[in-house]
Amino acid sequence: MTDHAVELKSVVKRYGDFTAVHDTNLGIPEGSFLTLLGPSGCGKTTTLRMIAGLTGITEGDILIKGRRVNDLPIHKRNLGIVFQNYALFPHRTVQQNVAFGLKYRNTPKDEAERRVREALELVQLPQMADRMPSQLSGGQQQRIALARAIVIQPDVLLLDEPLSALDANLREDMRIELKRIQHTLGITTVFVTHDQSEALAMSDRIVVMSAGHVEQVGSPEEVYNRPASEFVAGFLGNSNILSGKVMDIAGPVAKLELDGLGPVLAATDGVGRTLSTGETVKVSIRAEKLMLDGADPAGDDISTFPGTVTTVDYQGQVARYFLESGGLTLQAINTIDERPLQEGTETAIRIRARDCVVLPH
Amino acid sequence: MASLDPMDNRWRPWRLLAPALTAVFLLLVVPISFIIVYSFWLRTATGADIAGFHLDNWEEVLTDPFYRDIMVFTIWIAFATTVVCAVAGYIPAYFIATTQFKHKAFLLLLLMLPFWISYIIRTMSWINILGSSGIVNVALQWLGITDEPIQMLYNQWTVIVGLVHFLLPFMILNIYVSLYAIDRNLVDAARSLGCTGWQSFREVTLPLSVPGLAAGSLLCFVLAAGTYITPVVLGGPTDAMFANLVFDAIITQLNWPLGSALSLVLLILLGVLVAIYNRFAGLGQIAKSFG
Ligand SMILES: Nc1ncnc2c1ncn2[C@@H]1O[C@H](COP(=O)(O)OP(=O)(O)OP(=O)(O)O)[C@@H](O)[C@H]1O
Ligand SMILES: [Mg+2]
Hints:
The structure holds 2 protein chains of 2 kinds. Chain A is of the alpha+beta class. A 6-stranded mixed beta sheet of chain A has the order 6-7-8-3-9-10, sandwiched between helices. Chain A has a 5-stranded antiparallel beta sheet with strand order 13-12-11-14-19. Chain A contains 8 helices and 19 strands. Chain A folds into 2 domains: about 5-230, P-loop containing nucleotide triphosphate hydrolases (Rossmann fold), CATH 3.40.50; about 240-360, CATH 2.40.50.100. In chain A, helix 2 crosses helix 3 (about 110-120) and helix 3 crosses helix 4 (about 140-150). The longest helix of chain A is centred in the middle third of the chain and has 18 residues, at about 170-185. Chain B has a single domain (about 55-290), classed as MetI-like fold (Orthogonal Bundle), CATH 1.10.3720. Chain B is about 70% helix and about 0% strand. In chain B, strand 1 (about 40-45) and strand 2 form a beta hairpin. The relative contact order of chain B is 0.13. Chain A: Belongs to the ABC transporter superfamily. Spermidine/putrescine importer (TC 3.A.1.11.1) family.
């Protein structure tokens, strides 16, 4: 287990009677980019602050590089932290801000200067050394905050929603930039966000959290395509959650009878256990995997239902449709060839078995 | 005619400011002008004032070592009071700014509590504490530490004690305001970069609270230097401060021209101090603690 840079073992955090983080186990592989993703108040910041040592833990152990750090004060943990509001020292120049951590590591003066210069070059702001933080734009402040955190060569880099204060365009640039820097340095990174596209774009692994619980840990593809719970399916992208009954099982594919819709073939590889016939299950179907007329897939694992378009949300490249089928409302997102389907159109809804994912519970 | 039009926006600010400007003019500009004019008049042995432009008062005030010594003493008392307030005020200000206690407003209200009692009564209360039959002396005698009451009152130290008692809330409030505005993440960031708690205080909290310290110090210094009651109540016969001189000249000796010159000297001295402070820190900081 020593290849884990950070390990959480049965970590619990309570504030009085309120449990902010429930029994959490998590291993963060050396050099990987891990994202804590979840809605507001689910305990992402709390988890990050416990790793940082800014918040005490109620139960359990936290290990950094195999060493138990429960009682190690924050200034001895050698972590780089980037805060949502940057938290640059307003009374210090950029140079002094970045050099701050080196001063407390007794780095010789010329080496410190060289490393500050390298860090500023890495974040592409070498010419800003003599400015005060107030003379920088939000994006520049963010880069300096990152430079300040990485210049000390921390064991782990902790980022709490570092991009959320930036405007949309800058956010996408910074996201690529951040990933590039993380990749260059090969530094173990824990990133907190409630933005699913940020998480999907940047992470090696995503931890989806909800109400203090870890819902799923997996690669971006896994959590997106094989959600482990209704919550994950609903939180990432637009999903149709339907319930049904298992009729027949054939290897990784099961035949289900969906309430309202009828028979459908579904993938069971995300369940992690063998289903039994007659069992009631929930399935998740992504909106973009519901194919309407115009998109005609081929294959022998396709289930088809009739449906009626009730609402069209035209977005140029794609359209979001709301459909009525068997008394249910379904959502479909399809790319548009020429013009979208009109409201009231009768259409066929097609689903491939591998896109119809049986949820574990 | 246009200027009488109530909708004419050019005159609007002036009309809105008129009551305030009138008050400032009548209550500040006019009396100070009188005092300036008075300071150049001359007082004769018969008691009549001679109008005119005489520099005699100014010459006396600026050259007589008697006045100079009292000015130095006044500055010393104000300075010592300010230093004591700054050191003693920082701790409660820090506590109130960082406490997790839910009712911060209540703590701030407690700070204001002394203002509900007259300043003179608060000053006099020290007689009951430090006087020869005050609580400290009674306790010392009862414990058998001394036989005779110790003379603790009526010296420059009790003047400083009285002034600190009066001015401490101003200092605490000013420091509190600047401490409260410091982003907690700055301290966390410093800690994560390798500072111990004390080091992060020195690197981040203290420097960022300097504006509050400076504003509080200015306020304390100016109020202490202009104080009149405290040295009368708690000082000894030789502990007169500058405002006592002014009182003495005008009320006791009825020498308005000299009193005017004396009060102007104090005004100019404190004005220069405020100007220097404003040059470096800006007066806006003081306004914050009243906002
Ligand atoms: N000091 C505290 N005292 C009491 N409860 C707290 C404290 N800090 C956090 N909480 C609670 O713990 C829960 C998790 O908080 P946390 O800050 O970790 O959420 P988050 O996932 O970071 O949310 P956001 O996306 O809004 O930042 C919240 O319900 C919050 O109210
Ligand atoms: Mg948060």
